[in-house]
Amino acid sequence: MPKSSLFNAFSRILQRCDLPSLPIHSLQHTCAVLLLESGADMKFVQEQLGHGSIQITSDVYATSQARSRKAI
To answer: Is the pLDDT of residue 68 over 70?
Structure first.
């Protein structure tokens, strides 16, 4: 599937749901945060996102994981 088709479909879905325009990358970020908040470990999230190292994932999502721990 061409990337443009995916981006266009995502834009149409947002419009139909009367949601603001968002970059499609926000879905990846949302998924990562939800995984961490539900108790997934950082290594699993790294693998799901396809990051080359856990350091990248940790740098971006460590604050989300810290917030989740505070809530418990």
So the answer is: no
